[in-house]
Amino acid sequence: MKVVVIAGIPGSGSTTVLSKVLEELDYLHVNYGDVMLEIAKDDGLVDNRDDLRKLSPDIQKEVQKNAAQSIREKSEQSNIIVDTHCTINTPSGFLPGLPKWVLDQLKPDMFILLEADGDEILKRRISDTTRNRDSERLKDIELHQEMNRAASMAYAVLTGATVKIIENHDNKVDEAVGEMVKTLK
């Protein structure tokens, strides 16, 4: 069974594409943050998602490791798509979404990055009134996608996984879905 990591920056359309892909393929969808929250709650460490980031770094690392191990164990029964972030843009710089201790436990087979042109992402973010996102300039969006590419290749070097970039342009979601389905078959 496969463990596939899907990532895209906010506004790339990864949630939309992934939901349509899952209608066509038999993969178990796992959100990495949800698994972390479930483990931390079961261990009595937090009551809600916001409490996760308030845990000490050592405890956060342990929860991350346990989440990766839990996901890997599920892959013994089913193909898994892990929905997560390759990098997180924080005020103090980019944070790796999948540090080495996570990769060591998760052992992914493939990384799929969903991307769009920076101006498309900017327009999507502006028009999405359901979210409260930080405003970014076009060059910041493009840098974040470049950081995701660099991080995913570094992750691939550490794991032997492949990296596939799928473009999700405006009014062409079906093409992105088709390419992802073909990649995952």
Helix and strand topology:
Blueprint: E1 3-7, H1 14-24, E2 28-31, H2 32-42, H3 49-52, H4 57-74, E3 80-83, E4 87-90, E5 93-96, H5 100-106, E6 110-115, H6 118-127, H7 138-159, E7 162-167, H8 173-184
Parallel strand pairs: 1-3, 1-6, 2-3, 6-7
Antiparallel strand pairs: 4-5
Helix pairs in contact: 1-8, 2-4, 4-5, 6-7
List keywords for this structure.
single chain; 185 residues; alpha/beta; five-stranded parallel sheet; two-stranded antiparallel sheet; 8 helices; 18% strand
Protein architecture, described:
The chain has 185 residues and is of the alpha/beta class. Helix content is 51%, strand content 18%. It has helices at residues 14-24, 32-42, 49-52, 57-74, 100-106, 118-127, 138-159, 173-184; strands spanning 3-7, 28-31, 80-83, 87-90, 93-96, 110-115, 162-167. The N and C termini lie close together (12 Å). The model has no long low-confidence stretch (mean pLDDT 93).
Tell me about the largest β-sheet. 5 strands, parallel
H/E topology pattern: EHEHHHEEEHEHHEH
Helix proportion? 40-55%
Q: Give the amount of beta strand, in percent.
A: 15-25%
What is the molecular shape? globular
Structural class: alpha/beta
Query: How far is the first residue's CA from the last residue's CA?
Result: 12 Å
Number of strands: 7
Overall pLDDT: 93
Low-confidence stretches: none
Work out the helix count.
8
Radius of gyration (Å): 16 Å
